[in-house]
Protein: Phenylalanine--tRNA ligase alpha subunit
Organism: Staphylococcus auricularis
Amino acid sequence: MAQTEAMSELKQQALVDINEANNEKELQDVKVKYLGKKGSVTGLMKHMKDLPKEEKPAYGQQVNEVRQTIEQEIEERQTVLAKEKLDKQLESETIDVTLPSRRIDIGAKHPLTRTVEEIEDLFLGLGYEIVDGYEVEEDYYNFEALNLPKSHPARDMQDSFYITDEILMRTHTSPVQARTMEKRNGQGPVKIICPGKVYRRDSDDATHSHQFTQIEGLVVDKGIKMSDLKGTLALLAKQLFGEDREIRLRPSYFPFTEPSVEVDVSCFKCNGKGCNVCKQTGWIEILGAGMVHPNVLRMAGFDPEVYSGFAFGLGPDRIAMLKYGIEDIRHFYTNDVRFLNQFKAVEDRGEI
Ligand code: DAH
């Protein structure tokens, strides 16, 4: 028996619907429409009961053929749709490995950090320890233990931020000297440098900042002489400003050293002839130093009859300004990336 007209129409329509289904959901709907419990093919089966007995098997077979054809077409369409979906996904997730990568901006060392580390490296190589101190310090260690009693006029040299009568923001890194010596119970040797931030009630201008950086140095042992200080500082000057540099000591005054000196280095720009960097003098002042005052040794528990020492205090801000030709100390602390990026550029070129 041939398929009834209704049957072949239904099959044609089903094939059209299957081909028009553009995704799995639509295809599922088509499946339900034809093959579901209330679907059209299932509906054809229901006519069976109205047919004469001898036509039933053939009719049943015809309906089954229609069902099988539809099932098969759905399956094929499903494979096609799945492949389309995968192709689309692969296309959208394609990575072009030949594209140049995005540049990752990595930072560079701050010029001050660079200067401090350069100085640290030198002293570590000479067997010094690096010691940290407190930025919020007791008046005792900031002044008294450094031979600056309460009434001492030299306290005015360092206008301070007081927090209470006895506590202040340290005005220099020298208190680390006193604290470190005190911990050693009168036993040398002590060989330390102490880098860190210090604070003074200065008005900020091109050469002053209320917060700046210092590095303190201290050596205490038996038989330490002024010549040891001089040799050490000569080495430092060469490290920072070049092999040909010389130093010059001028008498000065600090309450915690006796004798005290200001230390100048021969100008790295004009080699001592006189230029704008050294203000035509041929020399640039870089630090203060001296032999540790017997009172300072005694207060920290060292016997000045047995031990002697030298100390120095230098400002990495000024050193970095000189080295890199920076005209305003505030650039170090305002952290404008345009300023900082210049150091990155010269680092990239391998110039520093
Ligand atoms: N503390 C001094 C200052 O801030 C610098 C200094 C000078 C430190 C001489 C020293 C020294 O240890 O011996 O001005």
Q: What stands out?
A: The radius of gyration is 44 Å.
